[in-house]
Amino acid sequence: MHNLSLNPTQNNSGFVSERYSTPIDTALAKPNEDKRTAIYSQLNDILIDEAFCFTTATVPIRIAARANVRDIAINAHDSFNYKTAVSIEPRDQVGDGRDTA
């Protein structure tokens, strides 16, 4: 297994269980898809019962601002830093169609 958090012999939690490692070994050795599907269902139940690993996913950071607002920074803890933000006058925007001459 490539995912260290779910590896049956060496995972991030230090979790070791024959109930968990046996179905993984069996699934890796079974070429029959139907048998593997049943084993995967069993593994899903084990992961829910044992709860030794919590999988999380990040959510993309999004913000809505006018087109002339620039340089809103993102802090390390996924909040916005408005100290560096600036508002550019429409005539300063590139390609706004205005003649500056």
Number of domains: 2
Query: What's the total count of β strands?
Result: 4
| Series of H and E elements | HHEEEE
Shape: elongated
Please give a structural write-up.
With 101 residues, the chain is of the alpha+beta class. The chain folds into 2 domains: 1-57; 58-90, no CATH class. 30% of the residues lie in helices and 8% in strands. The chain contains 2 helices and 4 strands. The chain has helices spanning 18-29, 33-50; strands spanning 69-70, 73-74, 80-81, 86-87. Helix 1 (18-29) runs antiparallel to helix 2 (33-50).
Task: Give a short summary of the structure.
With 101 residues, the protein is of the alpha+beta class.
Keywords for this entry:
single chain, 101 residues, alpha+beta, two-stranded antiparallel ribbon, elongated
Write the layout of secondary structure elements.
Elements (H helix, E strand, L loop, with lengths): L17 H12 L3 H18 L18 E2 L2 E2 L5 E2 L4 E2 L14
Helix pairs in contact: 1-2
